[in-house]
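in:
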């Protein structure tokens, strides 16, 4: 599927005039998800575009997307972002237990945008306690802690995409 910039611009303009909160287009060679910032808890209504090719394409086949004011640039693939932002392991972090994502999806800290997060840094969690939600294919999956202890780090921002095995939080066990 080939998507020209003018078609993308027309799509964003049309979506901006509707109440559609999220739209995903999938093809064999790319995936495009558009979410309104208001759906992520912000007050602005400008759409945000995220293009993540599920497979590697030769550079000649990769669709070029120019930037438009009010539209975020395409995000780096999650694997590159996590590798670049992951802090180097230290002796203190070796005593911490990682809570990792068991699937590819979208990370949510709270059960709803207007509700408080399940956990904050410094909170004590017990085994079986829900710490976040992972959305995959429109299904909300509660992720439960497998360790009792104190949350010392939350590494993912609300509504960010996550990969299988990606570290979401770190817990200092009891």
């Amino acid at each position: 599927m080939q998507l020209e910039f003018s078609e993308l611009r027309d799509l964003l303009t049309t979506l901006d005039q509707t109440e559609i909160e999220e739209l995903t287009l999938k093809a064999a060679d790319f995936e495009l998800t558009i979410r309104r910032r208001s759906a992520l808890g912000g007050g602005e209504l400008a759409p945000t575009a995220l293009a993540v090719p599920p497979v590697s394409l030769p550079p000649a086949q990769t669709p070029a997307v120019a930037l438009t004011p009010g539209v975020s640039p395409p995000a780096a693939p999650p694997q590159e972002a996590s590798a670049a932002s992951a802090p180097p392991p230290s002796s203190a972090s070796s005593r911490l237990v990682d809570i990792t994502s068991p699937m590819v999806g979208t990370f949510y800290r709270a059960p709803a945008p207007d509700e408080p997060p399940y956990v904050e840094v410094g909170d004590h969690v017990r085994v079986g306690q829900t710490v976040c939600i992972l959305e995959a294919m429109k299904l909300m999956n509660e992720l439960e802690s497998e360790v009792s202890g104190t949350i010392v780090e939350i590494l993912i921002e609300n509504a960010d995409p996550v990969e299988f095995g990606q570290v979401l939080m770190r817990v200092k066990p009891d």
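note: The mean pLDDT is 75.
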